Amino acid sequence: MDKQEKELREQLTGQAFDTRYAPSDVLEQRKQQARQYAGMENAIAVLSDFHNEVSFIFSGDFGQVAGLSTPEMIVDSAFEEAIFSLIPQEELLDRHMLELRFFQHQKMQHVSQRRHYNTVNLIHFLTTSGRIPVLHRTYYLDSYPDGSIWLSLCLYTPFVELQGTALCGIVNNQTGETILDETYEQIDRQLLSPRETDVLRLLAKGKSSKQIADALCISVNTVYRHRQNILSALQVCNTAAAVELAMRSHILS
What we know:
Blueprint: H1 3-13, H2 23-41, E1 44-49, E2 54-59, H3 61-65, E3 72-75, H4 81-84, H5 89-108, E4 117-127, E5 130-143, E6 149-158, E7 168-172, H6 181-188, H7 194-204, H8 209-216, H9 220-234, H10 239-247
Antiparallel strand pairs: 1-2, 1-6, 2-3, 4-5, 4-7, 5-6
Helix pairs in contact: 7-9, 7-10, 8-9
């Protein structure tokens, strides 16, 4: 790669592009940072590689309380299912919606600005020791030169729950400001295309694929395709979950 091409890539992506700094080096550096955080805070740190669909879970003493079998685990998924199973279903849905918003929000940001944002929300772990309040945060650490998101870090830290405290949102960690609800509304409406939104609205009313096809003057196969696209965009496994997420957000409003 010549100097001019290197400078052009850096300008377009907003990040340094050095062929001597291989992705494997970046990954090992991030794994070490996650490992150190887990040890220092006695917390759980999950480093997710979206491109290779793998997660690295590091845990301090809190991992034992949460039922994790070893202090370091590798999971063949970009999502930490072993931890999701500890979270009450309603809180898990709220966390999922926040993560969808955050992913969409980060795609809208210049690569150089992504590190200035993170999510924060209060959840609970249901363990054999009881119901434990946990502060959950997500950071997007690295992107590939083409701008696609590569590595994220989720942190789970035991937390003191204060009466009346409601923590949930996207924070600009450079200014301390939180994203306003108007921005969430804009983000939610970008998650699906207008036609996918029409299909989901009819699904929420209990309509069958044939009824939706007749109402929208499209084929049943097209409805099936839209339904699959909806599940993929919202990262859920079934229509019921998609409808529930839509009801908790501005998707159908």
